[in-house]
Amino acid sequence: MKRLKFLGLGLMALLLGVALAMTPAGTSITNQASASYIDSAGQPRTTTSNQVVTVVQQVYSFTITPNGTESAPGQTKSALPGGQVLFNYVVENTGNGTDTINLATVQGTSDNFDLLSVRIYRDDNCNGAVDAGEPQVTSVTLGMGQQACVAVVATIPATATSGQYGNLNLTGTSQGNPSVTDADNWARAVATTQAALTATKSATPSNVAPGGTVTFTISGANVGGSAAYGVTIPGLGTGILISDVIPTGLTVSTMPTGTAGAGTVSFVYYDGTTWQTLTTLPLTGNGTVAIGMFISGSGAFFPQGAQYTFSFQATVPANAPAGATYANTAVVRFDANGDGDSNDPGETVSSNTTTNTVTATYQPVVGYPGNITLGNETQVVASAYSGQTVSFTNVVRNDGNAPDSFTLTLQNPTFPAGTVCQIYAADGITPISGAIGPLNPGSTQTAVVKCLLPAGYFENPADGTTTTYKVELKATSVNDPSKSDLTTDQLTDILPGYAVDLAAHGYAGDGNATNDNPAAQTANPGQTVYFPLDTYNAGANTDSYNLTASVPTGWSVLFYPDANCDGVMDTPTPAPVTNTGPINPGGTKCYIAAVTVPANATPGSNPVSFTATSATLGTVSDTVTTQVNVNLVAQVLLDPDRAGTVTSPGTIQYTHTLINNSNAPAYCDISASGGNYGWTYQLSPDGTSWYAALGDVYAAPNGGTQTIYVRVLVPAGEPIGRVDVNTLTAQCDVTTGTPDNIYEATDTATETTTIVGGELRLQKSAVSYVGTTPTVRSSDGSQAYPGDYIDYVIVAENIGTGNLTNVKIADPIPAYTTFLSMAATTTGFPSGATVLYSTDGNAWSPTPPSSVATGQSVYVGVDTDGNGTIDANDVMPPAARITLVLRVQVQ
Fold first, then answer.
1. Which of these, 811, 803, 805, 720, lies nearest to 762 by C-alpha position?
2. Could you say which residues form the signal peptide (predicted)?
């Protein structure tokens, strides 16, 4: 095999597979580590490291084939003295970026003569000949993985005598890196006055579709100085044999054609054992079976200048994958000197090698499970309710021969106005907003079409199949937008599905409207009274309901969930809601309607009503009525209780709201208990001016509010985990006259402050290396070549003053790299602590993994309690450090 040339120290030692699948030059390999942990206050935290970026550098590498030395040339051509010879080569860019290969020829020193008029041509159609318009070149520019055919044409000196030869070498030099060369491509031209047959080959088209036909044509002439003899071929007789091994998988189904300037032409084949006359087709290539043209004759029957041509057609398999190649070389055997064999130099001639590549064909097919064919299929759902989401499961299949992605679109809908249809992944949850794939040939992917029907549209009664609703799902090839397929998703009937029953607790859904209204209640001004209510979904669809109330001006209503449906406010009091959230058909949710009477409400009977309205269909609702009989009292509230964390030393600020629900102004004195540890508590009415206490804070009547700010100053030296509770008290003089410091109303709020500490700092660096005995390529990891190693170093350190627990460090294996190894060390941990490794963050082992897929993450933790896993019992003390070294290789 042709040796590969690489740029850089040590790259010659890389595996061949690395060279053949190199990461393209200029690719950025990015990597960032992360960590999760629990801080000293018991709160889960996450942090990330800095990002490290490595840019892949260009490797310059190419091959020129066929190979050969001056003493053993890779190809030999014969011609008359003064005649022309042609040598065929293939130049391939095996590097990872575009490069220009400079070409030159070198005359031999261990031969009889120098060749004349040497020229290099680019053989654009790779037919082994120089055709009109094909350019003379001194270089070829090739992208990554590309190749070019070139032909070297030269003339044998007229003074050469028969049997003398001249050697010529085609050399190449990378323009990107002149140290990368190829100089072992020697060829030999032999001067002869005997017969000399040439052989050039074409194979068209060079790019062929699966199931397509390739036409192979071998042609040549006797360019020597005398007539050619035939050789004896067992099974055929004596003649000139042009043979071609049929490429594996290709099938010859029609008889070949051909002509010759002398002799008798017949068509033959080789079955792996003997040659025989071709009478039966087809022939399928298996690496041995060959087809040929036999030109029979006796003596020196093929004169100087006589020509021949031989053509046959072969069909590519219909399932041939895109990119499959069929390389093919023909061989001509004749006798130049009349000794009866073709063993002498120049008597067995190989043509140039042709290569045909299977083109990509693209064809999406979309249908539904059990019926996926090219064409429009229809799947039917019999019925669905208004406001319901109806789902259709569809399957997209790649019927092309190459990986392809497909754009999914919806078209020609006949659903009612207001219907919203969308395409989702197989889980029915993840929307598909772009192309799916790429899918390999024959692979499938499920796509779910979900249509949300308008709540207000339904057939009543259903009309069977008279009306149908449908939408077409179309799959279009990304690589060839002219290729598409579609399937129809159809719904037959849309039925009504929304109703609601709101009633006093225990009576919803019983079908008796006479017991729905709650009993009346009595309240003081500023008091809240509670009405237990049940909301029952009497429809056929899952629905949610907006909860509203009608109360006298200035009154307020809040609806609280009653989770256990016992008609009593839950403890602790849940957050109020205005919507029930989803309720399944036949389901019930319970609520407490909390009606707050304003502080200035006059005594008497006040009508109150509650309504549940469908959030989907606003015309669906139910209302119950009751009344509240009002007294008059004064009331103030100081809310809410607050909690927070702070470092030592540190500062934290809380806010509270003083609410006056009285029917007169409130003048309140605000004081703080100051807690148990001598911390400083400061109060402010505006967040700007701070005091030890506040006096005569005014709150307007009938729900007037005042914000109270509390600032906590924590001194240094407080231990982690210390908790201080401050009680904020509002003592209020409620009066319409001059305040007399007689407190008619009092309320408190609490502030719970916890000292926390501990912070995990995550830092990352990288170094790239070259060679099996690593030599530093880039000390900061910013550059690397394919095959280089990159060591990522991640350092996690507790820079706080408290213990951290459940510390897990994660680092993904970057794209374009292959995992090699990982190892971690620690400092500052308790004696006996053990480093553990994981590939999923759940299962842990003291042994690092031996293989990790690209894109998968590796994890490191330290087991301090000896239970063989990483959990909340594993402690990372202050100043403790974990150092992880992750080694990957650039692909």
1. 811
2. 1-21
CA atoms of 186 and 107, how far apart (whole Å): 9
What span, in angstroms and rounded, lies between the C-alpha atoms of 5 and 795?
38
pLDDT digits 0-9 by tens, 310-334: 999 999 999 999 889 999 999 999 9
Residue ranges of the alpha helices (H) in 332-443? Answer: none
Q: Quick check: 708 and 697 in contact, CB under 8 A?
A: yes
Number of residues that this document lists for the chain = 891
For residue 14, is pLDDT > 50?
A: no
- Asked whether 180 and 5 are in contact (CB, 8 A), the reply is yes
Q: Which residue has the tokens 């490595």?
A: 54
Q: What is the pLDDT of residues 768-797, one digit of tens each?
A: 999 777 899 999 888 999 999 999 999 999
Question: Is it true that the peptide bond before 205 is cis, omega within 30 degrees of 0?
Answer: yes
Largest distance between two CA atoms of the chain? 143
Strand partners, 862: 835
| H helices present in 12-117, as ranges | 16-20
Question: Quick check: 581 pLDDT over 50?
Answer: yes
644 token code pair: 């927070």
Beta strands in 647-784 (DSSP E): 650-660, 666-672, 680-684, 694-699, 704-714, 723-734, 745-755, 760-770, 775-778, 783-784
Q: How far apart are the C-alpha atoms of 503 and 737, rounded to whole Å?
A: 45
- Asked whether the beta carbons of 95 and 144 are under 8 A apart, the reply is yes
State CA 31 to chain mean position distance.
Answer: 16
List residues bridging with 381 in a β-sheet: 491
Tokens standing for 409?
């679109």
Residues of the chain with CATH 2.60.40.10: 62-191, 364-495, 500-615+617-630, 648-755
Which structure tokens are listed for 469? 């609703």
pLDDT at site 671: 94
For 764-776, the DSSP string reads EEEEEEETTTTEE
Tell me the C-alpha distance between 811 and 852, whole Å. 11
pTM: 0.55
Among the four given CATH numbers 2.60.40.10, 1.10.10.60, 3.40.50.300, 3.40.190.170, the one describing domain 364-495:
2.60.40.10
- Looking up tokens 């990597």 gives 31
Confidence of residue 631 (pLDDT cuts 50, 70, 90): low
Kind and range of the H or E run holding 596 = strand 588-596
Tokens linked to 71: 């003493």
Nearest of 596, 597, 591 to residue 568 by alpha carbon: 591
Question: Checking phi first, is residue 497 left (phi over 0); if not, alpha (psi -120 to 50) or beta?
Answer: alpha
Instruction: Report the candidate in 190, 209, 201, 448 with the shortest Cα–Cα distance to residue 327.
Output: 201
Terminal C-alpha separation, the chain: 21
Fold for 648-755, please state it.
Immunoglobulin-like (2.60.40)
What's the token pair of residue 109?
Answer: 């020193």
In whole angstroms, give the CA distance from residue 184 to residue 459: 83
Burial 521-541 (b: 16+ CB within 10 A, else e): eebbbbbbbbbbbbbbbbbbb
Contact between 161 and 191 under an 8 Å Cβ cutoff? The reply is yes
**How confident is the model over 561-589, as a mean pLDDT?**
93
- On the question of pLDDT at 152 being above 70, the answer is yes
SS3 state of residue 715: coil
Is it true that domain 62-191 has CATH number 2.60.40.1080? no
Contact 92, 20 (CB under 8 A): no
Question: What distance in Å separates the CA atoms of residue 417 and residue 457, rounded to the nearest whole number?
Answer: 9
Contact 315, 213 (CB under 8 A): yes
Query: What mean pLDDT do residues 478-489 have?
Result: 94
